[in-house]
Structure prediction request, 295 residues.
Amino acid sequence: MNEKKSNTGLKVIAVLLGVGLLGSLAYTVSLYKDREKTKTVLTQEKEYVVNDLTSLQSEYDKAIMESNATNEELVEARDRITKYIDSVKTMKADITSLSRYRRQVDLLKKERAFLLKKVDSLTQSNSLLAMERDSTYQELSRQTVFNDSLVVQNTQLADAVEKGSALNLSKFSVDAVRERNSGKLVSTTRARSTDKIKVCFTIADNAIAQAGDKQFFIEVLDPQGNVLGEGNTTTNENGASLAYSKGTAFYYENKNLDVCDYVNKPAGDFQKGKYMAIVYDSKLKILAKNEFELK
Prediction:
């Protein structure tokens, strides 16, 4: 009798445990389904946030491209959104975090509207400034063309005056001379008899030339091309240099002027052969040259 009661009690306990186990399994399954559903909802919400941020980023990219000049505020806002996108993509989704980012998206949309309105205003202002600048540029261009024309005319006039006021030679002669005991100089063609090279020239009259002290340079080259005389060197305003035989100074009064100067022989006698005599003005422009021969 007791054994029968014991078996009945065990059956009851087994039934109760089975019912409990089934209830526990049902509860676990329900929890799992709820968790998966919540996970799906959070994932979708996370995607919505990312999509909204990506859309804002695209609008900023478009506004930056359409802007004539780089707008630092737009770039800064676009870069912040890029950081938010990276944060949302890597975050572990939960209701609190997603709600915070949702609120942040709303603030960013308001900021976008404000910045784009500000950019539009600046764009309109820049357009007006561009129109004024173009008008000013055209006026400056016209004035520049006019000024350039005046510069060309003044330059041409200055060149004409410079050329017209330049001194020129109307006569030029070179003569080898020997000095007699009396001091008189006579012409010679013999190298051994030559004591000096006499260079004479006549400066033509020029009414527009500036009167005053002037200097010309005489260069005498021997048959080997060596420069005879003092061996001095001068340089003009353009940096060109000249080794000359003799510097000849004179005072010019706008009238014909005869000038003669002498180049002494070197340490030894003059050599036989052909010589070249050249006269330069103060700017080292060649005024005349002549070739002569000593036998």
In short: The chain has a mean pLDDT of 76. DSSP finds three helices and ten strands in the chain.
